[in-house]
Amino acid sequence: MQNLKVLLVDDEEEFVTTLAERLELRGIQARSVTDGEIALQMIETNPPRVVILDVMMPGLGGLEVLKRIKAQKPQIHVILLTGRGSTKEGIEGMQRGAFDYLMKPINIEELIKKMQEAIKSQP
């Protein structure tokens, strides 16, 4: 997974920063932001291959960010994160084009496996 560029988007700054550090230690180029609007700007100027996106964020929510990502850069894979204990938002996100969703707290190895599956699914 060397040279894989990932953007992490979650309003929980400590969570997203720690996750980025853990991915970096595994050779994955990870950037993190805590705001959906900033994430969309970053995607426009320096698109990643995969976006890890929290569903529930203040301001621009994850499902709206997903919609805009798929409109701008449909080739980017999006994996949703939800901490609500409900799969409703994850399923809705997959209907809107997300590759998959994971429940928080996440297992880093499971997240990496999902990213690998997403990249392999690309034609």
Describe what you observe in this structure.
The chain is of the alpha/beta class and 123 residues long. It has one domain (5-120): 3-Layer(aba) Sandwich (Rossmann fold), CATH 3.40.50. Helices cover 45% and strands 20% of the residues. It contains 5 helices and 5 strands. The chain has helices at 13-25, 36-45, 62-72, 88-95, 108-120; strands at 5-9, 29-33, 50-54, 77-82, 100-103. The protein has a 5-stranded parallel beta sheet, with helices on both faces. The longest helix is centred in the first third of the chain and has 13 residues, at 13-25. The chain is globular and about 30 Å long. The two termini are 17 Å apart.
Q: Stretches where pLDDT falls below 50 for ≥5 residues?
A: none
Find the count of extended strands (DSSP E, 2+ residues).
Answer: 5
| Helical content class | 40-55%
CATH architecture heading: 3-Layer(aba) Sandwich
Rounded to the nearest angstrom, the radius of gyration is 13 Å
Q: How would you characterize the largest beta sheet?
A: 5 strands, parallel
Which range does the strand content fall in? 15-25%
- Categorize the overall geometry: globular
- The main sheet orders its strands as 2-1-3-4-5
First CA to last CA: what distance? 17 Å
Q: How many structural units, i.e. domains?
A: 1
**What order do the SSEs take from the amino end to the carboxyl end, as H and E?**
EHEHEHEHEH
